[in-house]
Amino acid sequence: MYANEGVAVAKTASGAIRVVIGDRRRLIAEALAALIDTLEGFTVTGVVAGDEVVPAIAAQKPDLAVVGVGEDTDGVVELVETFSARAPDMDIVLVAERAEPDLVRFVLDQRLSGLLLTNAAGSDMAVSLGQVATGHAILPCGWRHALSPEADNPLEQLSERQLEVLALLADGCSYEEIGKRLFITVNTVKFHVRSIFLRLGVRNRMAAARMLSERRGKATRLSYRGAD
């Protein structure tokens, strides 16, 4: 259930809900940690900032991970993968400036516990994280509008990074080659490919490549006619 109505903050057997913070931007990570540490019923047990990886995440037994989203969405994917691998039962919530369509889809596709926006008040954040702790999922108001169908071109649903991945995929590059060219991990490439297939409604690279080729051909024809 996706909602943002008030509920009581559930506490773990040890007392407060244990939270780990993740963000490639160290200043933002520390700010999130400082904010959440002031919320009643929560305690921050660790911070993953910059390129750091905390190998003892599972040992800290966190109940919840709060991951900040900046321009580096690939870094967010990798952080989520790291947290999920080390603490598979942990809830994960993203914090971003806007409910971008790709972010909303990412939350839904990966079955994360939700998405919060940075314009939320501290009290609202406490209520929302409390909902997550009681087994609910959270998304900001208007999230369905962010998923409204694009006009005629399904490629418009893809992010710039996904278009880069699709172009290399259409050129016959392997996942490993795509990762090396774009400086991302193979797991991140696989994530983008799954998302691309889902957005385009196709099941394999040949169908995706054909759609890219057809759309490019259509754009070229329209451009040629416009020149007349």
Brief sketch in words of this structure:
The protein is α/β, with parallel strands linked by helices.
- Rg measurement, Å: 20 Å
Report how far apart the termini are.
Answer: 54 Å
Helical fraction? 40-55%
Average pLDDT, all residues: 80
Q: Spatial order of the strands in the main sheet?
A: 2-1-3-4-5
Beta-strand percent range: 5-15%
Describe how the helices and strands are arranged:
Layout: E1 17-23, H1 26-37, E2 42-49, E3 64-68, H2 73-86, E4 91-96, H3 101-109, E5 114-117, H4 122-133, H5 143-146, H6 160-170, H7 175-182, H8 186-200, H9 205-227
Helix pairs in contact: 6-8, 6-9, 7-8
Verbal overview:
Mean pLDDT is 80; it is low at 1-13 and 218-228. Helix 6 packs across helix 8 (186-200), helix 6 packs across helix 9 and helix 7 (175-182) packs across helix 8 (186-200). The protein folds into 2 domains: 17-145, 3-Layer(aba) Sandwich (Rossmann fold), CATH 3.40.50; 154-218, Winged helix-like DNA-binding domain superfamily/Winged helix DNA-binding domain (Arc Repressor Mutant, subunit A), CATH 1.10.10. Strands 2-1-3-4-5 form a 5-stranded parallel beta sheet, sandwiched between helices. It has 228 residues and is α/β, with parallel strands linked by helices. The chain is 47% helix and 13% strand. The protein has 9 helices and 5 strands; from the N terminus they run βαββαβαβαααααα.
